[in-house]
């Protein structure tokens, strides 16, 4: 009898948990009857408007952020978030394949290696991901901050030039 009651209580708890979970599924996870839009997906990952994320970062660190004025492509959507000590900005072009990211964080140590200079003479580091060669990163330091720019989609040489152009346009 005790064993039977324990089983019934256990089953009852599982059913209760399932109903509560299913009732709130859309709020707390990525499962849905219909696919999430790109905006909904980024919102679920705590992204918000770029200007709001930048303001949060600037207030937290008392630093001014400049984003590139020369974007690698015309962006159709943009999102931002402050996570720990890093500002993450995402710019998406006319296709979901075109993605340009800008990360900004307080400068803690100088770049260990550099391999290029931009127009103003600043030394930068450009790297292409050796495993997934469709992604290139540019690192630079300015105004007590480290900027990391990344881009995909274009040919490697085009990605490098687009990143250099973007870095040159950061005021």
Fraction of residues in H or I helices: 25-40%
Shape: globular
Taking the sheet with the most strands, its summary is: 7 strands, antiparallel
Calculate the mean pLDDT score and round it. Answer: 81
The low-pLDDT segments are 1-28
Helical/strand content category: alpha+beta
Q: Report the radius of gyration as a whole number of Å.
A: 22 Å
> Could you spell the SSE succession in H and E letters?
HHHHEEEEEEEH
Can you count the helices? 5
Number of strands: 7
Write the SSE topology.
Blueprint: H1 2-23, H2 25-28, H3 38-44, H4 50-61, E1 77-83, E2 86-92, E3 99-106, E4 116-117, E5 123-128, E6 136-142, E7 145-151, H5 156-168
Antiparallel strand pairs: 1-2, 2-3, 3-7, 4-5, 5-6, 6-7
Structure overview:
By secondary structure, this protein is of the alpha+beta class. It has helices at residues 2-23, 25-28, 38-44, 50-61, 156-168; strands at 77-83, 86-92, 99-106, 116-117, 123-128, 136-142, 145-151. Strands 1-2-3-7-6-5-4 form a 7-stranded antiparallel beta sheet, covered by helices on one side. The longest helix has 22 residues, at 2-23. The radius of gyration is 22 Å and the shape is globular.
């Amino acid at each position: 009898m005790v064993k039977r009651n324990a089983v019934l209580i256990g089953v009852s708890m599982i059913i209760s948990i399932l109903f509560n979970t299913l009732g709130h599924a859309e709020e707390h996870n990525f499962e849905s009857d219909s696919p999430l839009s790109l905006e909904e997906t980024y919102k679920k990952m705590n992204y918000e408007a770029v200007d709001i994320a930048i303001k949060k970062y600037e207030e937290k660190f008392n630093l001014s952020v400049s984003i590139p004025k020369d974007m690698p492509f015309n962006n159709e959507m943009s999102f931002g978030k402050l996570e720990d000590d890093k500002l993450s900005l995402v710019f998406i072009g006319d296709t979901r394949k075109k993605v340009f990211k800008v990360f900004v964080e307080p400068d803690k140590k100088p770049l260990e290696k550099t391999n290029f200079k931009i127009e103003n003479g600043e030394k930068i580091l450009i790297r292409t991901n050796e495993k997934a060669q469709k992604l290139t990163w540019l690192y630079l330091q300015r105004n007590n901050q480290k900027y990391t720019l990344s881009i995909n989609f274009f040919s490697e040489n085009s990605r490098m030039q687009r990143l250099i152009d973007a870095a040159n346009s950061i005021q």
